[in-house]
TrEMBL record:
Organism this protein belongs to: Hucho hucho
Protein name: FIIND domain-containing protein
InterPro entries linked to this entry: FIIND_dom (IPR025307), NLRP_Inflammasome (IPR051249)
Domain FIIND span(s) in chain numbering: 37-322
Stored PROSITE patterns: FIIND (PS51830)
Major localisation: cytoplasm
């Protein structure tokens, strides 16, 4: 038995012969890897994966440095590694039709996992069942390849994970029986706040979700749908939820609000891809803080409650944000300090002087000549001189006046 316990055990978990072999081996490998010839591994190590783009969606890369047990800080997945190697993984869509044919439904995200160096021998998938409620008894793992699926019984189920041994790259995800007894699960209440520029109105989207969703992907999907309009409000999200039970959301806000719908059922098997709000709180005025309470319909006990602090509304200026003005600065002008200008009449470009068709007809103020107005800074004005006869300038009024007159031709001056 001791010699047998040193061998690497790789099973499909669905073969009776393999399970018999596993049951024999288990007694000799307590607290040791089931699929390594190395000495007992170190305790669980957390890692933050590299995030890269795969077909417009986030995917994850883990470059494992050695044998051991490693947990992803984003997805909650745990990999038991035989040695160093690269692991690529991402969430993919469930084919519910394929599951329904076997009387199953999703109980967690479906992960596509690829490890080119074949260094992963065991996978721990996070689940949301409450062990004491019996929900774990109906869990299994769907092993999806192309359009085929097989259901693997867990090697072990802990309070947080379903553990299986794996032999190749493909997709794995928790499933449960469609006719399983209904029992509470670990859930989350996520709040996404959406404000409107230059308005007092806003919306708080309330999502009821299973605990084993990938929160980063919930945010990613909400952003894909709504852009940067929403903000995730940090609050304690943990609660227990029961499938198909109806819930009511309430608040201590006294007026100027509306909650829609008034009651809503929790449908967890629809919550691993779409991430639509279960409730929406419509606020008609600016609210800084309030309390939210979630109850099962007809119950007086709180399933969840939280104090919510909303971010301050964004103030939009007509010409962008206003820069702060020092206290000792001169009085601010709407568009900067006033600059004195002098208007000067000049002939329009490319305009030839008009030729008289016959004897010049004297106009009261000379013939109309197209002009352009040009603003130029006013020069320093000398002290005013005693009034005298006004001298007519050929191309504009005499300083210091700012009266605009058209240009007067010299031949017309002689007629005057």
């Amino acid at each position: 038995m001791e010699e047998e316990s040193q061998d690497c055990v790789r099973v499909s978990d669905s073969s009776p012969e393999a399970m018999e072999e596993l049951s024999i081996t288990e007694c000799g490998v307590v607290d040791q890897s089931l699929c390594t010839t190395h000495p007992p591994m170190r305790s669980l190590e957390n890692f933050e994966p590299e995030i890269y783009n795969h077909e417009g969606k986030g995917a994850y890369r883990f470059q494992c440095p050695s044998a051991g047990l490693f947990q992803c800080s984003i997805t909650g997945l745990v990999f038991r590694m035989e040695g160093e190697g690269e692991v690529l993984y991402r969430t993919v869509h469930w084919d519910r039709r394929l599951l329904a044919q076997s009387g199953k439904r999703p109980a967690g995200p479906l992960f596509n996992i690829d490890y080119p160096q074949k260094s992963v021998c065991q996978l721990h998938l996070p689940h949301c069942q409450i062990h004491s409620e019996g929900g774990c008894d109906f869990l299994s793992v769907a092993h999806v390849t192309d359009d085929k699926v097989e259901f693997l019984p867990p090697h072990e189920t802990t309070d947080t994970h379903v553990i299986i041994n794996i032999t190749g790259s493909s997709a794995y995800g928790d499933v449960t029986d469609d006719d399983a007894a209904i029992s509470p699960i670990h859930g989350l209440v996520l709040l996404f706040y959406q404000s409107f520029f230059s308005e007092e109105r806003s919306i708080l989207n309330v999502l009821l979700l299973p605990r084993n969703v990938v929160i980063r992907e919930v945010q990613e999907e909400r952003k894909r749908r709504n852009g940067d309009k929403e903000t995730l409000i940090e609050t304690n999200p943990h609660c227990s939820l029961t499938l198909k039970k109806a819930y009511i959301l309430s608040t201590d806000i006294t007026d100027g609000y509306r909650i829609n719908p008034t009651t809503a059922a929790f449908m967890d098997f629809q919550s691993y891809e779409n991430y639509f709000p279960t409730f929406q709180l419509f606020l008609l005025t600016v609210v800084k803080e309030f309390e939210l309470v979630l109850k099962e319909n007809g119950s007086t006990e709180n399933e969840w409650n939280g104090l919510v602090w909303l971010p301050a509304p964004v103030q939009v200026q007509p010409h962008g944000p206003v820069a702060p003005v020092p206290a000792d600065a001169a009085q601010a002008q709407p568009h900067g300090p006033a600059v004195p200008i002098q208007l000067q009449a000049v002939p329009a470009p490319h305009q030839p002087a008009p030729q008289p068709a016959g004897p010049a007809q004297v106009q009261p103020h000379g013939p109309a000549v197209p002009i352009q107005l040009q603003a130029v800074p006013a020069p320093h004005q000398p002290a005013p001189q005693p009034a005298g006869p006004t001298q007519v300038q050929p191309h504009g009024p005499a300083a210091p006046t700012a009266v605009v007159r058209p240009s007067v031709r010299e031949d017309e001056l002689e007629l005057r």
